[in-house]
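Final report, section 2: Outcomes. Of the targets proposed, Altronate dehydratase is the one most frequently requested by collaborating groups, and we therefore present its record in full.
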Amino acid sequence: MQTYLKIHPDDSVAVALAPLAAGTSVHLDHKEILLSEDIPQGHKFALKDIRAGEAVIKYGSPIGQAREDIAQGSWIHTHNMKTGLGDLLTYTYHKDAAELAPTEERFFHGYRRSNGQAGVRNEIWIIPTVGCVNNVAEAIEKQAQIYKTGTIDDIAAFPHPYGCSQMGEDQEHTRRILADLINHPNAGGVLVLGLGCENSNIEELKRYIGSYDPKRVRFLVAQESEDEIRDGLAVIRELAEYAGSFSREPISCRELVIGMKCGGSDGLSGITANPTVGGFSDLLISKGGTTILTEVPEMFGAETLLMNRCANEALFDRTVELINDFKNYFKSHNQTIYENPSPGNKKGGISTLEDKSMGCTQKSGSAPVKGVLAYGEPVKEKGLNLLSAPGNDLVASTALAASGAHIVLFTTGRGTPFASPVPTVKISSNTALYEKKKNWIDFNCGPMTEGVPLEELSSQLFEYVLQVASGEKVKAEKAGFHDMAIFKQGVTL
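The predicted structure is given below as tokens.
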């Protein structure tokens, strides 16, 4: 088993793939390095003497600066290195984007909707317009399970605390996200449950939903009903009859949209799990499909790599705006732009935001950027898209689903049980997590540290995603989990 790795020829550090004890002899670059300290799994050690103020190089790029002189063989982490990032930057477009060669067309078995869209699930969703009816929505969900028969995969409510007492962009965010979910093709039927006096009431929300199939989307205003639970169940019964008429059929991967997200990352995430997802992304795009990368604050420090992969200068300009808008959002709230990584990230070996971002963006693979999306904006361009959303796991994963992702791939080094509105595949960066939390983790990238090639793991992940798209339930689905969260920025009345 390989126990350490130098990722790029220019790196000044290597990563421990397993715990390494002080005194261990490491052989790299035709020289022997004696470790002067214990190096935890996922953490870095110096391959040469690094002077105070000098850049620390990983992934072939700077991930921070040495706080002090660091001797060869020493542990490198937050105690002796710091971020090298500043605030707003000026960027120049240096195009470095090559189209991927097409590969053989593949198919999954999904559901063809009346509007021509394709879905990977045939669920009935209960969407509250306002938090005041959350309990009603959950009561309807609980009692409606008797209608989960035939080709109905699930009946699920999506409670949230918003829809009223909101202003400006927060109100717009809520309406856009709810409308996006109502229109999502993974739902064969939707009950939109309103209260009646809220800001984002049903009539207002219809302006955001646009045209819809009245057999698929139904509305109920609780204040206009004598018994909203009884009436809601009657609507669900009718929706189940309609949705139950759909059956799976072969659909080209050209129509598959996959969201990509990471959370609870460790020092192996950027070496195993994220590159595997990047390989998957390239493979799907080579077959005409679409992927979406989000969590903008975790692009800081690696953003120029994405900017230069933009297919044209207009997309480059939109990516610059994407990055700077988020930096200005932090600054407008008097918050530090680079207050990242999290305590869990640091424990796993990630030392700075650049370290985290360089690992995070590995999920994007090598394809050109073909689209840049605002929060709540549905995906339009095939290929790799960048989406404006924060790093928060639930908010970002909901944003991916709202933009059209059929499935979310979620890489993690520490694990999490959460779900999103669509099947959320948990991908572990290390085998220890996979073995410990088999009730959470769907796919393990730990074997890469044991010599399994990246291309093989990416291909295995691709085959697994096709199985999920064709109906195989992920662990969160088996547990009955459905989550959603909406991005809040401003005032609550």
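DSSP finds 13 helices and 23 strands in the chain.
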